[in-house]
Structure prediction request, 215 residues.
Amino acid sequence: MVNDAILKAVKEALEKSKKRNFLQSVDLAINLRDVDLRNPANRIDMIIELPHGRGSKPARVALIAGGELATRAQEIADLIIDPSEIQKLAENKRQAKKIARKHHFFVADATLMPVIGRFLGPILGPRGKMPRPIPPTADPVPVIESLKRSTRLRSKDRPTMHCMVGTEDMPPEKLAENIETVLTMLTNKLERGKSNIASVYVKTTMGPAVRIEGW
Prediction:
């Protein structure tokens, strides 16, 4: 059953959004209260798989691996970085930053994590994009498929967070269910649950923000 307040806000946000010459994302803005974000232990950093995915804009996922992992991921990964390229990439900071900006998530052969941490950690770490490690014998396809359907909710040291929950061409009901999933996951993470959420807004990329009542 779709939450009525969330569905109403989604429909209003879509109706108030002017048509643009590009497909707009639908984004969520969440304001926290009574959470001391100066303490890193209280900061939010969650990867949430959306039940209906991200619409026409799946997340871009890069894999750092060679051998079987790389071979299996050829059809699904947006970029595959061979282990031999890790140090070279670290030396070309401009290119490394470009790749970090372009890709939402990273996955890596678990045995490479010490090398990745040493050379690419300074670039990927501050951006919250250190790779998710997987065993070298694992099938990377389900992991990458899941990440392509996921959004990231990250607070840093400010009480306002933003995340994408889909695209404007998705049915409002599916967008509402994606939003409900994000809010449920966040509520479960917060010490005082829903009481730590001051307000929630939904909007398209260029459209006005609409408050979700009851949050």
In short: The mean pLDDT is 96. The helical segments are 4-16, 67-73, 86-91, 93-102, 113-119, 121-124, 140-148, 172-189. The chain has two domains: 4-56+150-211, 61-147. The first helix runs from residue 4 to 16.
